[in-house]
Amino acid sequence: MIDGSGCDFVLYENPVSIFYLTRVSLSSGMLIQRKQEKKLFVDGRYWGAAKKIFDHTELMTDENIFRFLSKENKGRLRIGFESDFCSYDRVEELRKKFSSLLNNVEFIPLSRLLEQSRMYKTSEEISLMKEAASIAYRGYQHVQKLLCPGISEKEAAWAFESFCRKHGADALSFEPIVAFGEHSAYPHHLPTDRLLKKEDGVLFDCGVKYCHYCSDMTRMFFLEKAPKVLLECYEIVKKAFYSGLQQGRIGRSIRDIDEAVHRVIREYGYEQQFLHSTGHGIGLEIHEPPRINAQKEDATISLQKNMVFTIEPGIYLEGMGGVRYEDTVYMTAKGIESFYPKDYERNG
After folding, report:
1. Own/partner pairs for 23-26, CB < 8 Å, 24+ apart?
2. Backbone dihedral region for residue 243 (phi beyond 0: left; psi -120 to 50: alpha; all else: beta)
3. pTM for the whole thing?
4. pLDDT digits (tens, 9 = 90+) for 54-67
5. Which CATH superfamily includes the segment(s) 119-338?
6. 9-113 — its CATH code?
7. What Cα–Cα distance (Å) separates residue 65 from each residue in 58, 95, 98, 223?
């Protein structure tokens, strides 16, 4: 993290970054890294618990911070910070604080600091994400059994959350997207009091956190009389998903997956109705690199073992409804594997 940055120290305040580097969970704190040495500074609320997890923990006092920073006795001290997390006001606050401790301090903005390492999951991380996926999938199956005319989107969303929390989830990865009928035309629809009708399609996008790691999946459910065009679109979307899945080989690129998915949807004339990226990385946060989008800077990234991301093609017809199919998948030496049962070859 420090090598190549030109910095003497790197300062982390994003709780996600701090957890990744120390396994300490907190809402506020300061981790300062010098070469291979890291020091975590916390206030009294976290001192006892943090010390048990991360040995190099001290109380956040000016004296303790100064002592650590004084290990570099240069004329000018260069401190890197997470520019995609720290606000301008916060940087100015830090500048004043640190300048009161040391005579000559320069703050260097560093973006996407941990992206490279977080993109590749350890076997432990993958195991935790598999459990998060299992809990969410069982929650989806539970709600699927409850779906009948008269239930509301909000009731379905609450049934999912309640089931998952009872069965091991620490939290939701995001507010569940439960969309009935015409509401499913909006990719990020939030549940309402809208009641389910027998002719509706149901779009269900959900995920939970387990030991800090996220899951994410989307399925469709049709009752008695789903519109024929939506059923046809759902088959197209699943075909596009499977096409992207087949591109998942070590050494191929993010672009290969994205283009394979778009090729299928374009073939059926629905590319203008595909309103979002093909997928995204996932881990401690619901959206992480790599972005599965041929138009973004991650497009040339080579697929490597233990990368974890989603594939989620969709088609959205305003006024009628939309369809989406999404799995969280991971790269193995043999290709892509899903965290979920292989139900993409039949109706969701």
Report:
1. 23/53, 23/54, 24/49, 24/50, 24/53, 24/54, 24/57, 25/212, 26/50
2. alpha
3. 0.92
4. 999 999 998 999 88
5. Creatinase/methionine aminopeptidase superfamily (3.90.230.10)
6. 3.40.350.10
7. 9, 13, 9, 61
